[in-house]
Design a protein that fits this description.
By secondary structure, the protein is α/β, with parallel strands linked by helices. It is built from eight helices and nine strands.
Length: 265
Amino acid sequence: MKKITKLIISIFYFYTKLILSNVLKIFGVKSNPVFTILYYHSIYQDEVIAFKNQLTVLNKLTKIVNLKDKLSLEKNNFYSAITFDDGFVNLLENALPVMEKMNIPAMIFIPTGFIGKKPEWDFEGYERDRKETVMNEEQIKNLNSKLFSIGSHTVSHPRLTKLNDDKIKDELYNSKIKLEDILDKKVTDLSFPHGEYNNKIVSEAFKIGYENLYTIIPENVKLNPDKNIMGRVSVTPVDWDIEFKLKIRGAYNWTRLIQRLKNPR
């Protein structure tokens, strides 16, 4: 019922925005670009066909961009980018081969304390992932670097807002250094585990050298020249077709208001 309610509100939100955009066009006013960053966790073998169909829809309805490129967004256009949290091996088997064939980029966030191991963090709604394994160092090194980039997901995948200052610094710094050692290149992207962060954590992350921080709050991404905090919308291969299409066009962005009420920063 909750899912259907969200869908109905999102349809209303989408068409309200669409009507407003068309009215503005009559007066020669261009709408701001819509840039939606998606985040997945796992892609299982029984989800490959659905995942491929979603990529086809994404390619048709938006311009898919690589988050490591210098981006320039034009008005009246829809953009998207794909991210994966946790870096499970099932991505190597089921997701990345499909993306390579379609030449679609993605960013993968790795919790470095679990490289080559099974996850031991708290799970919320992703119980199936408990049996998965995070990619090992060789697998991370051997990724197609033209399409797939790596970001930090901290060391131990904690709730950062529950940690003291020293522990926060350790989680952010040590994960960055570990990944840079594996990849032999700078790592400038960080995804907050469980989506938990506050102003103090953001400040520390930028101080350590991260340039792009990713939340789990659905919102239209607006790019700054150097440092960014970017919202993302959760998607899965089992999303309904209409639900997925609305998400990638920004129709679920209204839910950020609820999330911010629950978790004020």
